[in-house]
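> run fold DNA topoisomerase IV
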Amino acid sequence: MGILLAVAFGLTACSTGPEKAVCQRFKTGHFQFRHHEPGFHFSSLIERTDSLQIERDEISGDISTLAVKWTGDCTYDLRLISSTKPFPDSIQHLRKTVPLHTEILGGTADYYLFKCYRDNSDLVITDTMWVRK
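> ok
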């Protein structure tokens, strides 16, 4: 019985997140993020290097540049550097000072699933980032 529990625990521990190789392919590249819900549609084209992410809003044409800091094999923080989008000052300040923590939950050659949040906020977003080819 003890051996079965040890094996079960070992398998669970190994499958708690994506493999490093899965996340590695999403560190740089071209992506698209789309979010649709009643009354709100958002689509952004994203170009990511190992330290910068440039997002172009496909609807408004606004461009945002963000610093990317990889905090683990499958985790990174985003912090706003600049944006042409007319955010209120309080939102600009928040996006420049409080990082958006992002965790890659898994993926395929076509997309990855992610979860993101900010410290001191109850809002957690889980969604899909599509790979542009």
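The first helix runs from residue 2 to 14.
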